[in-house]
Design a protein that fits this description.
This protein is α+β, with helices and mostly antiparallel strands and 137 residues long. Strands 1, 2, 3, 4, 5, 6 and 7 form a 7-stranded antiparallel β-sheet that branches. 26% of the residues lie in helices and 26% in strands.
Length: 137
């Protein structure tokens, strides 16, 4: 059975890279100094210059496993968020990382709740079967 919510892989230690080109608020390709800091696509990343200036994006394509390159990012949707509420521009040198985000916690919480519901359903079916077995005795 599939999980209720997608859980994207994380990277131990949340390693960081930096942007190698400016990005405007409408760009959908993000050029990064080291792609190995990001797990395989699709996944989430954050672009930031400080704890108060950031943008979280889903990326759908990663050019290669390692080295400098680009990722294709989505700048809208349920998994997107920003410190300002809208897409932002970032200068070359902004930090890029795969950190733990609110959607990660939300996915874990939704999947635990889903599993609890399935367990309760199974327990009910077992109780029903036990009742039928008692009737057969």
């Amino acid at each position: 059975m599939a999980l209720a919510s997608v859980m994207y892989p994380l990277k131990n230690g949340s390693p960081k890279a930096s942007t190698t080109a400016d990005i405007t608020d409408t760009d959908t390709q993000l050029y990064v100094s080291e792609l190995s800091v990001l797990p395989a696509a699709p996944n989430l990343l954050v672009i930031y210059t400080s704890p108060t200036v950031w943008e979280r994006c889903k990326y759908t394509l990663k050019q290669s496993a390692a080295g400098a390159g680009y990722v294709n990012i989505l700048r809208s949707g349920d998994e997107w968020a920003s410190s300002t509420g809208s897409a932002q521009s970032f200068a070359t040198g902004a930090k890029v990382a795969r950190n733990v985000f609110k959607p990660d916690f939300d996915a874990v919480q939704a999947n635990v709740t889903d599993c609890e519901g399935r367990i309760t359903d199974c327990e009910g079916r077992i109780t029903d079967c036990e009742g039928r077995m008692d009737t057969l005795d």
